[in-house]
Every structure is written in structure tokens, then in C-alpha cells.
Write a structure and sequence with these properties.
The complex is a heterodimer of chains A (about 130) and B (about 210). Helices cover about 75% and strands about 5% of the residues of chain A. By secondary structure, chain A is mainly alpha-helical. Chain A has one domain (about 5-95). In chain A, α1 (about 5-30) runs antiparallel to α2 (about 35-45) and α1 (about 5-30) packs antiparallel against α3 (about 45-60). The termini of chain A are far apart. The model of chain A has no long low-confidence stretch (mean pLDDT about 80). In chain B, α2 packs across α3, α4 (about 80-105) runs antiparallel to α6 and α5 crosses α6. Residues about 1-15 and about 200-210 of chain B have low confidence and may be disordered. In chain B, strands 1-3-2 form a 3-stranded antiparallel beta sheet, covered by helices on one side. Chain B is mainly α. Chain B has 2 domains: about 5-65, no CATH class; about 80-210, Alpha-Beta Plaits (2-Layer Sandwich), CATH 3.30.70.920. In chain B, a hairpin with a 4-residue loop joins β2 (about 140-145) and β3 (about 150-155). Chain B has 8 helices and 3 strands, in the order ααααβαββααα. The chains are: A mainly alpha (about 130), B mainly alpha (about 210). At the A-B interface, α1, α2, α3, α4 and β1 of A face α2, α4, β1, α5 and β2 of B. β1 (about 105) of chain A pairs parallel with β1 of chain B, so a sheet runs across the interface. Chain A: GO terms for molecular function: sodium:proton antiporter activity.
Chain lengths: ~130, ~210
């Protein structure tokens, strides 16, 4: 078996695994009970799924120009996905979109007002 | 920076002290190099034309969008960094598998918790890195960050008992330790060895759970 064939097989494996993870993330989005749980689905399996798809593409394309772009896509995904999830979670937190009956403990409830005030004070002068 | 904020920074044990000109220069050089690397990667070929045009773009970007002052006091240690990256990849795979499994399981509603984790090293850089890494590893998602006390509020999915919550809290601190070991200053690493600060009182927990 030549090196090319092996690389193609690995690439195929990565692409399929990545696609399946993205599918699982989609299913999780529909099935999870509240917004915060759904953010988990969009932050984790989706990122790994995308990374696997990128690796698969890289192994299949095998040219420098394409691989550098794929590396950038992966890096930015890793850097931005948690921020996006955090922003959505923060916007949703004080609202009713969260199933508090499913929470074992909520240690943020006692602090949220102070943090919000701090942030407004910090943002005001600038 | 206003006079008032300088005073408060000096009174609360200086998690983010003001930068010296040398630090500022180093930050700027790092940012320029990083931007040039991204530019070259975008073009895909390494040539003098790309590097020089990248330099021009980087300088314009930094002039238009100046970076917030970030204190990077440590240096990159190779072995701990490698350990962090490997563990991070492993965690990412485990996290994804866990969520995928949860999604496909029928007749089971995952319970979750929101916990406060006071970090031991409260610099902006460490808060940011820990928060980013934390959002990608098993079962956790950053909900809120309290910059003044260096506390992360984390949403944890699929926990069943108080013991699991406590175990999770420890794993967050271990993640922080790995990051600080990789890039922290000697002083920050010393702070890791000290006993962890007290976790917030349980009064909040009862209130949250009772609702």
C-alpha cells in the first residue's frame, strides 16, 4: 500500500468522524433541556468535529497553501468558540431560559448583581 | 489609565500591575510577529513580499486597535507547555465524546450546576487562558468572570452529586496549575503551592438549589 493510499484512508476516517461529531452536536442542540446545556453542545463536539474535518481536508489536499489556511481556520475556531459560548451564556444567565430545577447548585446567584455593577462602573469612564 | 484605578490596583495585591516600557515594547514586538505569521499563513507562501506587506498591515492594525496591557511575566517552558497541549487534546476528545453520548441517550435529562472557582493567579492573561481552555474541556462552560477577585463562574453539565461538583472544582484548579506551570512567572508558580483560597460560603448554594 502506498503512502498516498494510507493518507487517503486516514483522511476519510477523520472526515467521517468529524461529520459524526457535528451530527451529535446538532442532535444535542435539539435534545438538551436548557440554553446552558446547549452551549456545551455547540462549544465542544462541534469544535472537535471541525478540527477533524480540517485534518481530513489537509491530509487529502497536501499542498502548503491549503494547509496554512486550514491551520488558521482551526486556530481561530479554538480561540473564538469559547468566547461565543460565554457571551451567549452571559446574556442568558439572569433570565428564565435556564432550568433552575436542574441545577444542583448555583454559586453565581449571590454574586451576579455585584459583578454587573462592577462592570458598569468599570465601563463608564472610558 | 485614571489615577483612581492606579490606586485601587496598588491596594489589592496587584494582580495586574502597570506595565514598564520594556514590557510594552516586548508586547508590541510579540503582537507584530504574531500578526505577520497570521498574514503569511493566510497567503500560504513564505516570501519577502508577504513578510513586508504583513509588517505594514501589522503596524496599521496595532495603531488602529491598540492592545490592552497584558502582563506576561513568565517565559514559555517547553515541557510543561507540551504537557498542557497533550492533556488539552485528550480533554477535548473526552469532552466531545461525553456530550455526544449525552445527546444520544434517551430518557435521561442531564443535571448541571453553576460553581464558583476562585483562581490563585488572578492576572488577566491567566484568567483568559484558563477560561478559554476550560470552555473546551469536559463538562464545563464559562458563564461569568469576576475580574476583581479572579473568580470564574463555571456551568458544569452532567453532575450527579455534591462530591462530583467538588471533584470538578479541583480539576479546574489543576487545569490552572498546568497553564501557570507552562507560562507563568516563578512568583506565580509559588502562589500555586500555597493552599487554595476559601471557596464561597455555602449559603449561596442553598439559595440556588432551593429555587
Amino acid at each position: 500500500m502506498s503512502v498516498d493510499t494510507v493518507l487517503d484512508i486516514v483522511a476519510a476516517g477523520c472526515l467521517i468522524a468529524g461529520a459524526l461529531l457535528c451530527l451529535a452536536a446538532g442532535v444535542a442542540l435539539v435534545r438538551f433541556p436548557d440554553l446552558l446545556s446547549r452551549m456545551h453542545a455547540s462549544a465542544k463536539p462541534q469544535v472537535l468535529g471541525l478540527l477533524l474535518v480540517l485534518v481530513g481536508c489537509g491530509l487529502r489536499l497536501r499542498t502548503g497553501v491549503d494547509i496554512t489556511t486550514l491551520v488558521l481556520v482551526g486556530l481561530f475556531q479554538l480561540a473564538t468558540a469559547p468566547v461565543a459560548a460565554h457571551m451567549v451564556g452571559r446574556a442568558a444567565y439572569p433570565d428564565e431560559q435556564i432550568r433552575t430545577d436542574l441545577l444542583l447548585t448555583d454559586e453565581l446567584a449571590a454574586h451576579i448583581d455585584r459583578i454587573t455593577q462592577d462592570r458598569q462602573r468599570g465601563a463608564a469612564p472610558t | 489609565m485614571s489615577a483612581e484605578s492606579t490606586v485601587t490596583q496598588e491596594t489589592i495585591e496587584q494582580p495586574n500591575p502597570p506595565l514598564t516600557p520594556r514590557d510594552r515594547r516586548r508586547n508590541k514586538v510579540t503582537a507584530v510577529i504574531g500578526l505577520i505569521v497570521i498574514w503569511v499563513l493566510l497567503w500560504g507562501t513564505l516570501s519577502w513580499a508577504n513578510i513586508l506587506s504583513g509588517l505594514v498591515v501589522a503596524l496599521i492594525v496595532l495603531a488602529v486597535f491598540p492592545l490592552p496591557p497584558v502582563k506576561f511575566s513568565g517565559r514559555v517552558r517547553l515541557l510543561p507547555s507540551l504537557r498542557f497541549v497533550l492533556r488539552f487534546c485528550y480533554d477535548l476528545v473526552v469532552a466531545s465524546a461525553e456530550i455526544a453520548w449525552l445527546a444520544l441517550r434517551f430518557g435521561h435529562t442531564p443535571r448541571s450546576a453553576i460553581i464558583a472557582v476562585p483562581l490563585r493567579v488572578t492576572s488577566d492573561l491567566n484568567l483568559t487562558l484558563t477560561a478559554e481552555a476550560l470552555s473546551l474541556v469536559p463538562g464545563s462552560l464559562i458563564l461569568e468572570v469576576d475580574r476583581s477577585t479572579g473568580t470564574l463562574y463555571v456551568h458544569v453539565i452532567n453532575v450527579r452529586s455534591r462530591e462530583e461538583v467538588e471533584r470538578f472544582r479541583r480539576s479546574v484548579l489543576e487545569l490552572e496549575a498546568r497553564i501557570v506551570n507552562a507560562i507563568g512567572s516563578p512568583e506565580e508558580r509559588r502562589r500555586l503551592a500555597e493552599p487554595a483560597p476559601n471557596t464561597p460560603s455555602t449559603a449561596a448554594d442553598v439559595e440556588g438549589a432551593a429555587r
